[in-house]
């Protein structure tokens, strides 16, 4: 027997060393952990719609700049009404002003000279709204009414976020209502049903939106201080298609669509 100690062949790692390397590397490979390439990504089983997150998508405006503008306005404005949502709310009107306004006449007809704070952010999902509420928005405000219109972007998958199911989105909207009620206990909340998308009645967006709105109608029924308002059917023709002039692009309302929304809010006690 050769008494010379055996050495690992060149290019091979001893088994114990390999195990150590894998053990040290494993935490970085687990879902939910931050890596050198970016922030933590929630595990697949986590409902991402309910995990607060700052800006996810880039859009036509400065997301963090608008967040700062909302915080600044809160110090000088005592709003009677607060609108919270995505680009559909963002591009209606009011302060902070947006570079795109698709419903200026409907805004005037609906709100007149009332003090309104528009917390709509283009491309926002439910997780973005949760983050904004956790980072100062609504803090110290006591509006009579809060109108929430969020969730449509959660159906869209991008390289930055996967699509959510109707159940996941409904859960997140319930959490948002809870955040609002904790920040402004005396405020009434109107939760809007997600507006229809796609010009044709059989557009693939329609079914998940109907499912979400049905879940919201059920889950929010009887919740103190919260009213669910679904005006989607009023934005469609008898055959389920979008009438001309109701939407700009099959997702964002035109002036006519905002008039439908405004009239519904007025009828609901705005």
Descriptive account of the structure:
- By secondary structure, this protein is of the alpha/beta class.
- It has one domain (about 45-265): SGNH hydrolase (Rossmann fold, 3-Layer(aba) Sandwich), CATH 3.40.50.
- The protein contains eight helices and five strands.
- A five-stranded parallel sheet has the order 2-1-3-4-5.
- α4 (about 105-110) runs parallel beside α8 and α6 (about 165-185) packs across α7 (about 205-220).
- It is globular, with a radius of gyration of 24 Å.
- It starts with 14 loop residues before the first helix and ends with a helix.
CATH topology: Rossmann fold
The helix fraction, in percent, is 25-40%
Radius of gyration: 24 Å
Q: Count of helical segments?
A: 8
By CATH, the architecture is named 3-Layer(aba) Sandwich
Helices and strands in order:
Layout: H1 15-29, H2 63-74, E1 81-85, H3 87-90, H4 104-111, E2 116-120, H5 126-134, E3 145-149, H6 166-183, E4 188-192, H7 206-219, E5 226-229, H8 255-267
Helix pairs in contact: 4-8, 5-6, 6-7
Give a concise summary.
The chain has 270 residues and is an alpha/beta fold. Helix content is 34%, strand content 9%.
Give me some keywords for this one:
single chain, Rossmann fold, 5 strands, 34% helix, 9% strand, disordered N terminus
């Amino acid at each position: 027997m050769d008494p010379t100690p055996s050495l690992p062949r060149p290019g091979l790692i001893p088994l114990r060393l390999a195990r150590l390397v894998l053990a040290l590397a494993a935490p970085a490979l687990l879902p939910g952990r931050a890596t050198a390439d970016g922030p933590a990504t929630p595990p697949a089983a986590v409902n991402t719609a309910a995990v607060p997150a700052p800006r996810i998508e880039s859009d036509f405006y400065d997301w963090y700049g608008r967040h700062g503008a909302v915080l600044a306005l809160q110090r000088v404005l005592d709003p009677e009404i607060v609108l919270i949502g995505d680009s559909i709310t963002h591009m209606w009107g009011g302060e902070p002003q947006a570079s795109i306004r698709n419903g200026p006449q409907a805004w005037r007809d609906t709100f007149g000279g009332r003090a309104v704070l528009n917390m709509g952010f283009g491309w926002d999902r439910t997780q973005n709204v949760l983050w904004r509420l956790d980072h100062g928005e609504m803090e110290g405000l006591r509006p009579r009414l809060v109108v929430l219109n969020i969730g449509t972007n959660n159906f869209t998958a991008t390289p930055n976020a996967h699509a959510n199911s109707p159940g996941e989105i409904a859960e997140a909207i319930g959490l948002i209502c809870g955040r609002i009620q904790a920040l402004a206990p005396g405020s009434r909340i109107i939760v809007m049903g997600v507006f229809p998308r796609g010009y044709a009645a059989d557009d693939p967006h329609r079914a998940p939106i109907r499912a979400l709105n049905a879940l919201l109608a059920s889950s929010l029924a009887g919740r103190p201080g919260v009213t669910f308002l679904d005006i989607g059917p009023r934005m469609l023709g008898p055959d389920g298609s979008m009438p001309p002039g109701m939407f700009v692009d099959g997702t964002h309302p035109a002036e006519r669509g905002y008039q439908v929304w405004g009239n519904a809010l007025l009828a609901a006690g705005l």
